[in-house]
Amino acid sequence: MSNKATILAIESSCDDTSAAVIQDGVELSNVVAGQKVHTEFGGVVPELASRAHQKNIVPVVDTALKRAGISHGQLNAVGYTRGPGLLGSLMVGASFAGGYAASLNIPVIEVNHMQAHILAHFIKPANQKKHLLPEFPFLCLTVSGGHTQMVRVDDYFKMTVLGETRDDAAGEAFDKVAKLLHLPYPGGPFIDRLAGEGNPKAFDFPASNMPDYDFSFSGLKTSVLYKLQAELKKNPDFIQNRKADLAASVQYAIIKALIRKLKKAVKETGIKQIALAGGVSANSGLRKAVEDLAREQNAAAFIPPLAYCTDNAAMIGITAYFKFITKNYDGVYKAPTPNYRLTGV
Ligand code: KG4
Ligand code: ZN
Questions:
Q1: 312 CA to centre of ligand 2 in angstroms
Q2: Which atom of ligand 1 is nearest to the CA of 285?
Q3: Residue 26, beta-bridge partner list
Q4: Which residue(s) pair with 109 in the sheet?
Q5: N or C: which end of the chain has fewer CB within 10 A?
Q6: pLDDT digits (tens, 9 = 90+) for 126-145
């Protein structure tokens, strides 16, 4: 057994099978196997996702250990995503982690996926010497395919959800609109790319403004749908002709809704550290808007590298690592919790 804290981490909450090795907070490897099988269905099919995880989990873990240059005997603990996520998907990673840890007689550490998205900011990349970290307390806007949350982060383990979406997540809004525009799944990156060529003011789509720090994105999809239906009656090539303008206008509305609440949170809490997390933080428009907001509010912006925005096991590994070194775990396997809440972690 190594003197260093060496953690194998597994993430399988949705449609990415991922394994990583984190040693003393440094990423030694982070392997992600995506699942192309969902593309033709325009969304994640839960049964197909768990089957693909079953197929991928052993080679992904093997590759992560090999790339890290770590053997079984050097591991101190195995971290895994307990939730939130799809039950069948979670079960594959959780069962694997539980069995693997038991066979090595080392603790298994359960991790909340939403907490992990936030703590991804603290992963030390192997070859990067200086790494600027957010200071506590900071605000984190976690925007993914399944969640949209405004979180006040007081500590690695003390996080308060100030507000969240009441219906669709921001990533879901990107993906649903992308489907209407006949773009492949997941559509967020395609909208992002197209938006760069379009006019964000071409169409006036609603940027929801819910009370407090809550969000709502379901109206946006409906509004785009009605606009398309009306325009397609007049011109069947409307989508084809105006795709970039539509993408830019939708992206503008989503970013406007997010930034409005982030600005309100900065002003009301007085916290001058703003972080982004989750798959949608890969969006180039959102990244720029957060940097602009930080400049305007004299605050600091923390935007993770792309590999740590979308689902990955390195973020599970860093969370398990903090739990391990602070002895904030009991080492016992816990069954997946599809609706695992961030509060109370
Ligand atoms: O965090 P994540 O990988 O998985 C979940 O936990 O949901 O987030 C996936 C979401 C998808 O909705 C995808 O369309 C969105 O992140 N996404 C983007 C971009 N890259 C990924 N949305 C907008 N622009 C992007 N560049
Ligand atoms: Zn996620």
A1: 8
A2: 24
A3: 23, 124
A4: 79
A5: N
A6: 877 677 899 999 999 999 99
